Queue: 3 jobs
Job 1
Amino acid sequence: MTSSVTLPLWQVVVLVLLAVWWALERLLVPSVRWFLRRRVNLAIEEVNQRLRIAIPQFQLTKRQVLLDRLLYDPAVVQAIEAFAREEGMPREVAVAKVERYAHEIVPSFNAYAYFRIGYWIARGAARLLYRVRLGSSDEVGLASIPPNATVVFLMNHRSNMDYVLVSYLVAERIALSYAVGEWARIWPLQQLIRSMGAYFVRRNSRDPLYRRVLERYIQMATQGGVPQAVFPEGGLSRDGRLRAPKIGILDYMLRTFDPEGERDLVFVPVGLNYDRTLEDRTLLLDVRESDPATAETVKPRARGFGALTKTSGFVGRNLWQMALRRWHRFGYACVNFGSPFSTRDYLARKGFDPRKLSREERIPRIEELARELMAEIGKVVPALPVSLVATALLAHPEGLSEFELKAEVHDWIATLEAAGARVYVPRSDRDYAISFGLRMLEQRHLIAVREGLYLPVESERTTLAYYANSIVHLFPQGETR
């Protein structure tokens, strides 16, 4: 028993590693899992006590369970059979495609990540970049939403900061699940986004099998009461104006909605606006490239390493200004929440049930609903200092003195308020708001001062128009021309 045994060094290393692995698996990992699970459960309990709408059970279900439920859904199974038959491929190949789609779409919501990590990031980023303001909110209407209703926030899409801003402002009320584009499918961002309940969408996919899987997931989440945030425009506004609504996700939600069921589907219109959007010049480059009159003069868009270099340069300049204490936030970012819109009441008023209509009968009605909802969003888009000043200057290309400009903007504010628009006036001081808007535009060299007159810089008129267009729909027809 006391004799020694000689082993090669590599065998000793393997045995040590196996022993460490066994100890971790049997002793440490279960303890860590128990600790993390306990922290998550405490976070869920705490959050549900203060949220207006508690986290639904569907959102707390394990991801693998949701994947199995989606993969074996009768509608998905039927779609697999049809696809395999039409494409002449083995059923197993079609099943493998569906599994990839399901893993891409289905989130893995983690309450601790959402309310601890996600909220901290959203609050920090929003308040670092902007003067964040909640302009107005129908508190009575929001409080009257039934606790078991599925709530969907419908928002205009101005910037990729929209996700961050709204999540931060509603974190005390609700945990939102976003439909996120493919731009966010990069490591490790996609893992963080998925853990906060977002699901990824291929917005331009024409694959019928993919669309069917996405449709069924959205329907399952809607029926399960998951609060969602949707951009009806489908993408960012390129020229600043509100875009026509797309009905894809809206149609998915309504196709299986039971008007007489116990769970109502309630839409909340949300209007956002910024004194400066981070992507404005990139978005306007798309506009110039698509315009035959300007396409030849546009420099080719930076892509790949060039795009990374350009973005890094933008970040570097701002960090350098911060270090020199010359950096200023990008103005005001304001959000308004409108009155809740009950789908059950709407269908009763219009007298139809989407489940009982053919596609040809249903689509026009869904389009009508989408236009009505988009109009409700438009009503609550806030008018901010930069958009007001840009509107006045573009209406007078010959230039305005400071006194004339302030008088002009005062008139625009009166016109908007008379029309029922939401005008955000910082500090409740119109003169301060106008001076602030002028300062923002001067700092970006979008306007110039010549002989005491403020006037647009000719090469930046498109940029000014981008900000003026954000509120053009609020004016009575023809008022700004």
Job 2
Amino acid sequence: MRPRLVLHLVLLLALTGCGSLGGTSEALPTVVLQGGNASTLAPVGSGGARVTASGVVLPARQATLAFTLGGSVRSVQAEVGDPVRAGQVLAELENTVLAAQAETARRALRELTSSAAVAAAEQALATAQDALKDSEYRRTVQQEGYRASPETIRAAEAKLLLAEEEVDRNKARYDQASGDADKAQALVNLTAAQQRRDGALRELNWFRGKPSEVDQALLNAEVAIAQAALQEAEWYLAAVQGQAVPADASGVQLTRLQNARDQLAAAEAALAGSRLTAPFDGTLAALEIDLGDYVQPGVPAAIVADLSRLRVETTDLSELDVTEVPIGAICTVSIEALGDQAEGHVIRLALLPTALGGDVVYAATLELDSIPEGLRAGMSAEVSCEAP
């Protein structure tokens, strides 16, 4: 790149001299030389200019993979250069215990969401609906002036009538009894019957009485409890059926179900941490482990790259020139190693800069319209883009 920069400088100096001979001066683009590394903005005839910069060929996508757990490598299921599919397991640690824990958690959740569990949840919901109706009815009756419903009062009246008849029968037996023993037994029976009659009478009188503030508060609380129980039953049935429930949903059964799901998620995450899995379709570009190796968590173990689509990223586009290269700018990319060129366009500009020999530079990413034969990731490139 330096010979081109020197040539541009010489041309600019010559043009400047010619302009002064004519007595007029024409503004020319400034040439920026920053240690021979920064991009340049060079004139192109009478129209616009072109920004030039160095670049490197990169895969469209690349991922560095690492185990999230430590352990011994049990299997390696791919080799460098192999094509891989998204989700494919590339290597695996010793994870027998983790697999068993995941299966146990899976069975527990399966039991809580089985057909029998769904049927039980539906039954619990129906029971909660009936309980709410009953409590609301009792409160409505009480608000109308009685402590009990007409049906309850009629039942209490019938109970009192039967109790009075029982008292009459036992009174007749007592009057007819002869002998001390028979008289004593008849008295015991009569007393018991009278106590039952008195209890039935008190119950009827209470039912017919006006409700107090305490009575009303108790029934309001009973309705509120029934409403909450119904809501929890609805949430639980929805959760068992796999439907979404609010984040603040509550209930003992629901908590138990959610705990089972959390335990399964944790077990599966631990199992996944013992495997290297390809995140997308591509090529296994690097593999740093072998069978039997002990690996530490977080240490890079493999690289998967999408080599079917290659891009070019600039390495020295200066802060003065980045404003001259908008998204969509058309560029020519020269690959020195191939002696070939390709057209491309800018698809992304870095939002944050990097430092290069004390200079501020921004990375521009180019999508190539065609891939030259033999192009490989890592090759250097020269990029020349049209400035607006």
Job 3
Amino acid sequence: MPLKFPKEFIDKYPGFIDNAVKLFPLQTSMDTLRNQYSAVNSWYYKGVCNQIDKINIPTLIIVGTKDIITPPTNSLMLVQKIPDSWLVRIQCGGHSVMA
């Protein structure tokens, strides 16, 4: 959970983590792990990153400013490459800002 939520958030809402465990599965299926690996592999090794500018639908990019898994600066690259995209930066949000 410390990777998903900033320390300041965990300190301010100590009971949240106990409740959040119910939101996030403790065990991840092999299919999910394979799909995640495939996505990361494609991104880095098959040049998927170079195809981002081919996205042709309105795109909302949301980032937590304290995400330590995916650098928030990556969102700037996305919004520059994806036509008709918007960027929302959630101050003090972590990787699981949507939760």
